[in-house]
Structure formats: C-alpha cells, structure tokens
What does this fold into?
Amino acid sequence: MAAEATALLGSAAWYGLQLLTGAPVLSFWGAVFTLGLLLAFSAWLYAVAVFLFRGFRWPRAGALVAQLFVLTIGFPTLTGGYPLAGLAMLVPAAVSIVLLFNKRVIQYASRAAGSPPAL
It folds into this structure.
C-alpha cells in the first residue's frame, strides 16, 4: 500500500509539474481539482498503509477498495493500447487482493481501536 501511495504521489507531482509548465488542458480548475484528488487519495493510501502495518482491522477494507479502483483503471489501460502500464497496475492490485485475504494477514490485522498494540 505504501508503494502504491508513493507511486501515486509521484504521478501527482508529475501532473502538477505539467500543470505548472503550461501543458494544454481543457479546464484549468478541473486540472487543479484532479491534482487535489490525486494528493488526497495518496494521503489516504498512506494512512491505510500505516494503520494496516499497526495491525488495525479497518484498513483492510480501505485497501480492498483501493485495489478495486486500481483494477477498474488497469483493465481499460491494458486493453486501450498501454499494456505495460496496465500490467503495472493490475499485477500489484491482484497480488494485494490475494494477500488481503491471506489467513496470516487477517489474523495480524484484527486489532480493534481499544486493543493493545499488535507489535
């Protein structure tokens, strides 16, 4: 999750740099809104990664939702003529989904908010 958040933050930085250098866009404020969404989603993924590492229960749902979003973007990217970019999205998302339902991950990430630390 942290690696995906870092990749998303990198793409937000690239998008922001393109926006500052005057890349053509249909709507400037729409592009600023998209940049804000990229930054917010990256922060959310970092939070999910941190709390999943701490062993909390709730980040598994957030991680699953994030991977499903990646899948919905990865399939059209793969079939739309960008196979490497599509595979770069689909493979980590599929591996993450499988690992989220692994018995050891479920056992580790079962701490409730009032429980003592898992580590």
The radius of gyration is 17 Å. The mean pLDDT is 90.
